[in-house]
Amino acid sequence: xxxxxxxxxxxxxxxxxxxxxxxxxxxxxxxxxxxxxxxxxxxxxxxxxxxxxxxxxxxxxxxxxxxxxxxxxxxxxxxxxxxxxxxxxxxxxxxxxxxxxxxxxxxxxxxxxxxxxxxxxxxxxxxxxxxxxxxxxxxxxxxxxxxxxxxxxxxxxxxxxxxxxxxxxxxxxxxxxxxxxxxxxxxxxxxxxxxxxxxxxxxxxxxxxxxxxxxxx
Length: 217
Known about the structure:
It is a single chain. By secondary structure, this protein is of the alpha/beta class. It folds into 2 domains: about 1-35 and about 155-205, Rossmann fold, CATH 3.40.50.450; about 35-150, Phosphofructokinase domain (Rossmann fold). The protein is about 45% helix and about 15% strand. It has helices at about 1-10, 35-60, 75-80, 95-110, 125-135, 155-175, 195-200, 205-215; strands at about 20, 60-65, 85-90, 115-120, 140-145, 180-185, 190-195. It starts with a helix and ends with a helix.
């Protein structure tokens, strides 16, 4: 929220400012989506799709670390989109023995020839987990840290449209001499709220998406 607080400070000094939420992590309070999230998600899906081709040919389990800081949106959305066997976030927690047991079950019960595990960053050492998977299951474990490749590339249409809508709203507010607000996406509508109000708001829980992932596995 550093940019928002900076805009708020400038507004209090008489300089009209509007905040627009831009981050791949999708973790800014007050808005359902942030500019950049869908582009990063698209990059992850593209990479995972290519890795899945390799994993299916060589009986491998890829442990893939994605960005997100302390947020879980990139990991959860990419896990659902790519049909991964497991997702590990701050919300799910990490139990290494459980992961190993799940990989054994995927191989022996479900007869899967490959597996994908999506991991949100700063939770575990993906190299160590991949090594244990190789040692204790029939899968050949491989660790991949996608890193800053998630941040690159041309914006996808969803981000271009969202950015244009938010910019239009911000310009409208500034023309009307309003300040100290941020532009947000709420229930598919572009709205404005005070920056201080937005910083205090807690975004909706992703419980339904977590349940959807469990239903799809």
